[in-house]
Amino acid sequence: MSLMISRAFALSLCLLLAAGRLPAADLAEQYHATADKLIDAALADTEGYNRLTYLCYRIGNRLSGSPGLEKAIAWSVEQMKAAGLSNVRVIPAKVPHWVRGAESARMVAPSERPLHMLGLGMSIGTPPGGITADVVAVSTFEELTKLGKEKVQGKIVLYNEEYRGYGPTRVYRATGAARAAAFGAVAALVRSATPLAMQIPHTGEMNYDEAQPKIPAAAVSPEDAMMLASLAGSGVPVKVHLEMSAQTLPDADSGDVIGEIPGREHPEEVVVMGGHIDSWDVGQGAQDDGASIMACLQAVALMKKLGLQPRRTIRVAFWVNEENGGHGGIAYRDFIGDKIKHQVAAIEMDGGAEAPRGFGAGVDASSMEMLRQIARLLDRIGAGEITAGGGGSDIGPLMRDGVPGLGERTVGTHYFDWHHTEADTLDKVSPEDFRKNVAALAVMGYALADMPGRLVATPVASRRGQ
């Protein structure tokens, strides 16, 4: 009987080894010493934050098609090479070239006062001289539908939807103009998608419906949206004058930046981590997403400094055009081509660099247990949480083809206070929190690239929040 048990155990172990799956309980012990080295190095590091400082103060915001973005791309190539990474290159991508131009909005009745506004990305401009029209305020699309064409035709629609989380609120920014146009509106204003009211407008991408006329669209501060809605709701005629010179030029040449440490045993297998190098044309793109790409670069740079070469290739990627098109993520997937089965995991960081909590992952139950074991190594910096549902827009094309996706998660306390605003500047990034993010990325990235087993993705359609 004992002989049969021994043979069964041996057979089970062989199957586990053949499948590249080892008991998750081994991982925390296996990588404890390496994790401590990486964390200690990250917490003592200043180079990564210095790079972020240069990006924010010397280059600034980086909208697709802009000189600032191309300057950042060239500089990033230099920085990856300086960090000792191999195979540094730019993956070409065509990107939209939207230009904001001069813009303004003001209430002209029942009294005259300027409005705090930012045109929405990809919006058309107004006719020369602008648009002056009555304002009709709604909180939901259902309210807009109830008003109907008779009460909306020729007016500016204001969406005064109170912030209920970014996902539920951003839909008005994304599709509000198209829906208003269907009822004959001449322009759309949306309340900025933020929980914080400090007279700061938040921009972001909007989309048109080709079946409807294109009308100009802009975001206004929460305070201005509440004022306009209150006045309109009280029966007082409200008029707004809107001028926007926005235009979309022909697509521009740009690209993703990648560099790597080749794997010592399986260089053809790749774990990629990164964020997006582009930003909106306001602020400095510090939290969104400059801190993320600099943290990813520094995580891999520290591996190089410590002489750590994982079993597989660890790659850092700065994807382009996440904000208004996603062409960088698509270009990267095209670059991978038929080598998709060699993509072991993809980690995206695109939620700011406040204190890290851990990672979200779209993987099966066994893989989740493996991740929890690795994440225990991050408890000392408060980043040991593993939750279901991970990834991001840039790695979406990889995930749809079966690559396990992870998203680095932070506390996110103030992220949407600054998101897509002039206030997204370096001073919002705590050096201490930045270093903790570097540590979390370094440990997770190294372990995934070095461990004997591989994660198994769950189908994208079953993941929440993708």
TrEMBL record:
Enumerate the InterPro entries for this protein: CPQ (IPR039866), PA_domain (IPR003137), Peptidase_M28 (IPR007484)
Q: What GO MF terms are annotated? A: carboxypeptidase activity; metal ion binding; metallodipeptidase activity
> Is Protease given among the entry's keywords?
yes
Is the keyword Glycoprotein assigned to this protein? Answer: yes
Q: What keywords appear on the UniProt entry?
A: Carboxypeptidase, Endoplasmic reticulum, Glycoprotein, Golgi apparatus, Hydrolase, Lysosome, Metal-binding, Metalloprotease, Protease, Secreted, Signal, Zinc, Zymogen
Give the PA domain ranges.
132-226
Q: Looking at the UniProt record for this protein, which Gene Ontology cellular component terms does it annotate, in alphabetical order? A: extracellular space; lysosome
Among SUPFAM superfamilies, the record links this protein to: Zn-dependent exopeptidases
Q: Where is the signal peptide?
A: 1-24
Record localization: Endoplasmic reticulum; Golgi apparatus; Lysosome; Secreted
One of its GO biological process terms is: proteolysis
Per UniProt, residues of the Peptidase M28 domain are 257-440
Where does it mainly reside?
Answer: endoplasmic reticulum
Report quaternary structure and partners: Homodimer. The monomeric form is inactive while the homodimer is active.
Q: Tell me what this protein is called.
A: Carboxypeptidase Q
